[in-house]
Amino acid sequence: MKVRQLFLIAILWVCTYANAQNKQLLYDFTEVPQSLLINPGIETDFKWYSGVPILSGLSFQIGSSGLSAGDIFAVDGLDFNDKFRDQVINGLSNRDEFSGTQQIELINIGFRSSDPSVFYSMGMYIETDFVLYWPKDYGILAFEGNAGRLNQEFDLGDLKTRIEAVSVFHFGINKRMNKKLTLGARAKIYSGILNINSTGNKGFFVTREGQNNIFSNTLDADLKLRTSGLNAINIAADENALASTIIKRALLGGDLGLGVDVGFTYKFNEQTAFTASILDLGFIYHSSDPKNYTLNGATTIEGVEIILPEALFNPSRDFFQDLVDNVEELVPFQENEKNYLTFRPTKLNASLRYSFGKKLRAKGKDDCDCDIRSTANTIFPKYLNSLGGQLYVINRPRGPQAALTAFYLRRLGHAMAIKGTYTIDKFSFANIGLGVNFQAGPVNMYLMADNLLAYQNLADANYASLQLGLNIISWGRK
Amino acid sequence: MKRKVFYFLAILMVCTLSCSDELDFSQTDDLEITPTFESSVIFIESTEQLINLIDGSEILSQSFNFDAFSSNIFAERVIEGELTYIIENTTSKPFELIIEFLDDTDVVLDTETFNVQPAPTAILQRIVAYGDTGKSIDIIKTLSAFRITARNLGDNTSVSNIPNPRISLQSSGKFRVRIK
User: Fold this and answer.
1) Are the CB atoms for A265 and A273 separated by under 8 Å?
2) For chain A: N or C, fewer Cβ within 10 A?
3) Cβ A69–B23 below 8 Å, yes or no?
């Protein structure tokens, strides 16, 4: 039991502190191989690369709109219950969310084909994704109750959450079609480790003046909680086989699914480019360990109702039990083990980039003033500066969620590149991020952090993200 | 090259050094979740026509199971509350209404007695508190059944001139419970 509790706490911690995240710093940062995972159609100039296992790509992101840790946990002498009531119960809306994503790359390699216009990349990563929209009406009902709230309908549709852990095996092809267009696609096989989701709920609970008795309570519910992997993990925890069960489910022993990423880079001219990608256009079929719970039906009760002479004719009748049975029959709580399908949280990225300043020589070429176009790996040269805007949209249970980013990228020779971003989204209107890529010979390191202004006081931050990684890259000559 | 290493390390430091106001997550220990719920409890009704058909004065003396309050999910959490009774009599007869609270061994825990005047009469309403400011909350926690006795203190022939004459007992409970 303790192991199970620890595991669930760990999952919640990882999920809470770790968002199918907006990687605006990494997007179109072509010096970093992992940018291929966000747009398989970027311009690549690597001969080959290999990520250092486990260390090649680590990314974490947390977000909570409408609330920061400092709002309720600050040591300010205020009564915690007052803060919780003001900031959470009365402060948050049902569109506010707590979300997080964590991604760990286990393998990531890429190599150029014998056709120098084609670059292959492949690997495996594990991703956990969590989103919980604040269930406002449930919160009010739990914290305040229904007393004194006559005719107020508590919306049961406020419950929307998704928790997912999935391993992804991927293979991508990047092809430079001509001087203007580079296309890319990535096929993905998903192996679902854990899925818990409760979306599309409907219904209400309301207390009204009764027809016979003082009050009537009406429950009209269409609620669904679907899980897969949770049961297996619980059993494994009891049998001290948690690690092996998770590994097995991660290595294609879980729920299987298919997906695809597509992307492109189109250059209007040598300095101006438009890029776009759609990621995780796919699904997972949860069939390995489904366990689902439903509450579906409608009823109105006014307490135990005894109308004479009925009670006189049948003195042994249990009116209370009849009421309970009637409610259970009309609004049954049921379990089933039906397979189900979930769609991946599809993401859209797009950018418009203008490059200017001094041209850089192609990586891998001798230190000469030879024409940049003479390399096979890159058609256009890189410039010292790039400036542009990016759009990010992710499909969430409450509909699409967007972010807009302005960026500036500065290259300091081939050894270093810095990208600064300013992003507005539902978490923050002042999100400044900074990413740096450092190349020491074949060793490539990158570190990217978001919402830097919040680092002045993390307690007041609504959002934070961090990405880092270590790769070995060869440009070589082809 | 050295300068670039310096830049990298400087940026790394900027990214990793941060400040934060002091936070105390143990404040969650102080969180009290004590909502108040209200719902109808029991409703009994009889027409004057039926009452006139019953010989003798005792028109009802019967126990009705009611395990809602003694179920663990409620009994272990209830702090305080109140029961509200509303008795409406539009018949021509006065009544005595006795509600006994029984535990699961039929021991009487508490009794509420109502003397109801014949029509035209005001609606009789009584609110009984349980908990610190009222009767013992244990009465509610151990309640397993209501024994309800209704006595006709009038005749068996008269009929009220109010349309559809009847006597009814409405009741509701409003209780504060501790979830955390």
Assistant:
1) yes
2) N
3) yes
Q: Do B30 and A80 touch (CB under 8 A)?
A: yes
**How many angstroms separate the CA of residue B78 from the nearest CA in chain A?**
13
Q: Is B142 a domain residue?
A: yes
Mean pLDDT for chain A overall:
86
Check residue A13 and give its pLDDT.
Answer: 38
Suggest the residue from B28, B30, B64 to mutate for an interface test with chain A (most A CBs closer than 10 A). B64
Give the Cα-Cα-Cα angle A452, A453, A455 (nearest 5 degrees): 70
Instruction: Write out the residue range of the structural domain in which residue B55 sits.
Output: 44-157+164-177
Query: Which of A458-467, B130-139, B143-152 is least confident?
Result: A458-467
CA distance A343 to chain B (A): 35
Average the pLDDT over each of A385-394, A396-405, A441-450, B141-150 and give the range with the smallest value.
Answer: A396-405
CA distance B121 to B88: 8
Check whether A333 has a pLDDT greater than 50. Answer: yes
- Three-class SS state of A233: helix
Establish if B40 touches chain A: CB-CB under 8 angstroms.
Answer: yes
The predicted model gives A391-403 an average pLDDT of 85
User: Two tokens at A416?
Assistant: 């270093």
Q: What is the CATH number of the domain that holds B111?
A: 2.60.120
CATH number for A2-474: choose from 2.60.120, 2.40.160, 2.10.260, 3.40.50.
2.40.160
pLDDT score for A267:
93
Considering only the beta carbons, identify the residue of A144, A412, A459 that sits closest to B4.
A412
Answer whether the bond into residue A135 is a cis peptide, omega within 30°: no
Does the residue B88 lie in any domain? yes
CA–CA dist A304, A318 (Å, integer): 10
The answer to whether the peptide bond before residue A40 is cis (omega within 30 degrees of 0) is no
Work out how many domains chain B is built from and give that number: 1
**Tell me, what's the ipTM?**
0.87
Instruction: Say if B35 falls within a structural domain.
Output: no
Separation in Å, CA A196 to CA A121, A211, A227, A250, A283: 31, 40, 4, 16, 15
Structural contact between residues B152 and B68, judged by C-beta atoms closer than 8 angstroms: no
Task: Check pLDDT > 90 for residue A189.
Answer: yes
- Whether residue B172 and residue A213 make contact (CB cut-off 8 A), yes or no, is yes
C-beta atoms of B27 and A80 within 8 A: yes
